[in-house]
Design brief:
The chain is α+β, with helices and mostly antiparallel strands and about 525 residues long. The protein contains 23 helices and 13 strands. It is about 50% helix and about 10% strand. The strands form 3 sheets. A 7-stranded mixed sheet has the order 8-4-3-5-6-7-9, with helices on both faces. Strands 10-11-13-12 form a 4-stranded antiparallel sheet, with helices on one face.
Length: about 525
């Protein structure tokens, strides 16, 4: 009995099997051609290569007849140690099959699932035949979930706590390779476990989870699994009570799943709640992306750069109403390499045009808002233009709808006489009106959209301090208010301030939050 135990341990103690790859491929080729297995040696090699993919993604697993022949041949081995060896080889193939990759065809993946069920049943049959179990069988008994459709869920909570003991025990005991789907599924299980946390806990570890999902934590995962992980994180974050923009989550989502307004089908396929597309998550990222692109344009592509904060603030109010947007770039922005310009072009991919008929440093920001097209320019001295969508020329519509990176549009088409309105970015100090308020007076009526936040009056309030008798202090940056220290409550100025929604405080003056 001792010698028998030693022999089984020697032959089957380790889960790994070393074999010549050429012998495996030769046996697979013969089996595919003859549909017969000549002897045990060939059977062992076929078991080891049952999931090997050809250039078209085919494997023995894809052929139900061949698959059944292998299973039947393994079950019919009279010697227990040979039957155990076949099981061991097929288990190795199960763990090494690229189930999350792009190369396997649908039939091979289906066959892999069938193999999983057979391994589960064969394990129970073999265990009854053994007088004692080799270490790798014991390891499989400790981790029976590996042969189910939720193979790694139990590792999720452990990994979330930073404990990889269970996963390492399974990998070491069963000789699971670093490239196995098991490692990837364990990562996915960690994401699922994170989704069960309370909002505060989830948000605190979100940066680390994104690092793992994007392959920046020392674990190499496939493109499809990265997409699955990010989809889970986006869906969970969309359910948080408070969900301010997360730039890292936004960029991870657009780089893996795609731009939510250009790849709606892809989003609906990957980002789901139960059996339904997750509209809430998609719209959340879509809103973030639009906000980022608006800020990008006025900070990177306008003449005033980061100082053009007023136009940024103004158009951010309209983001909820913007259905689509395009960026017509001059040659300077088109050719600028790397850095923020490269990141912007990546975010705006599919919505970039070439702007012709103007200077190299001019760019145009084009927005579709309801039945209208709004156009802002980057270079100084350009007005704002508003067009009716149904009045646009065929050439403009073709450029906007082409989706081609080489699409061009002429500046004359974006500031033509056919515009519905033309507005200048000039304040009216005498009327205490900023250009933002003047824009709102016209745009909200024309487009039928009224942002919740109202624009401020003339920011510097030059007219109020021109005579030196009125002091103005702007404390809004620090969370305070805009103060006009006018002690009288019934003056002509006081009436104007009251009309502008300023509130009077006795002894100090007028303020507006």
């Amino acid at each position: 009995m001792v010698r028998a135990r030693q022999r089984v341990h020697h032959d089957h103690g380790g889960a790994g099997i070393v074999a010549d790859q050429r012998s495996i491929l030769a046996s697979i080729a013969d089996f595919k051609k003859t549909r017969e297995i000549a002897g045990f040696r060939d059977l062992k090699y076929v078991c080891l290569g049952i999931g090997a993919l050809d250039p078209k993604g085919w494997s023995v697993l894809a052929d139900e007849g061949l698959r059944s022949t292998v299973a039947r041949s393994a079950e019919q081995q009279a010697a227990t140690h040979r039957r155990l060896r076949c099981f061991q080889a097929l288990l190795s193939s199960y763990f090494s099959f690229p189930v999350n990759g792009k190369n396997a065809n649908a039939e091979s993946t289906t066959g892999w699932r069938v193999l999983r069920g057979w391994l589960r049943e064969e394990r129970d049959r073999i265990v009854k035949l053994l007088d004692f179990r080799p270490p790798w069988i014991e390891a499989l008994s400790r981790h029976p979930e590996l042969l189910t459709n939720q193979p790694c869920d139990k590792f999720g909570d452990e990994l979330l706590r930073g404990d990889a003991t269970g996963l390492n025990d399974a990998r070491d005991g069963l000789a699971i390779p670093e490239t196995s789907w098991v490692v990837e599924e364990a990562v996915l299980a960690q994401m699922k476990a994170a989704g069960q946390l309370m909002d505060v806990e989830f948000k605190s570890i979100l940066p680390d989870l994104l690092g793992i999902a994007m392959g920046r934590a020392g674990v190499s995962i496939s493109e499809s699994l990265a997409t699955r992980c990010v989809a889970l994180l986006v869906t969970r974050y969309a359910r948080c009570r408070d969900r301010p923009e997360q730039p890292a989550l936004r960029d991870a989502a657009t780089s893996t799943i795609g731009n939510p307004w250009l790849r709606r089908t892809n989003w609906d396929a990957w980002v789901r709640v139960g059996n339904q597309p997750d509209d809430q998550a998609r719209e959340m990222v879509f809103f973030w992306l639009k906000e980022r692109l608006v800020a990008d344009f006025f900070e990177l592509l306008s003449a005033d750069g980061i100082n053009d904060r007023r136009r940024v603030a103004y158009w951010l109010r309209f983001v909820p109403f913007v259905e689509d947007m395009w960026f017509a770039l001059g040659t300077s922005a088109s050719r600028a390499k790397g850095g923020k310009f490269g990141e912007f072009r990546e975010r705006a991919k599919g919505r970039l045009l070439s702007l012709e008929g103007t200077t190299a440093d001019n760019n145009a920001f084009v927005m579709k808002i309801g039945a209208h097209l709004a156009v802002e320019f980057g270079a100084s001295g350009n007005a704002f233009y508003l067009f009716r969508w149904d009045a646009l020329s065929p050439s403009v519509l073709e450029s906007l709808n082409s989706g081609r990176a080489s699409a061009r549009i002429h500046i004359g088409d974006l500031r033509s006489d056919g515009s519905l309105d033309r507005l200048l970015h000039r304040d009216s100090p005498v009327a205490l009106k900023s250009w933002e308020q003047k824009f709102d007076d016209k745009l909200t009526k024309l487009i039928g959209k009224n942002p919740e936040v109202r624009p401020a009056c003339v920011p510097e309030l030059e007219v109020l301090i021109a005579n030196g008798r009125v002091q103005v202090t702007d404390l809004r940056v620090g969370g305070g208010a805009l103060w006009v220290y006018e002690p009288e409550r019934s003056s002509h100025l006081a009436k104007k301030l009251q009309a502008l929604d300023f509130t009077y405080r006795a002894g100090r003056g007028w303020f507006k939050e």
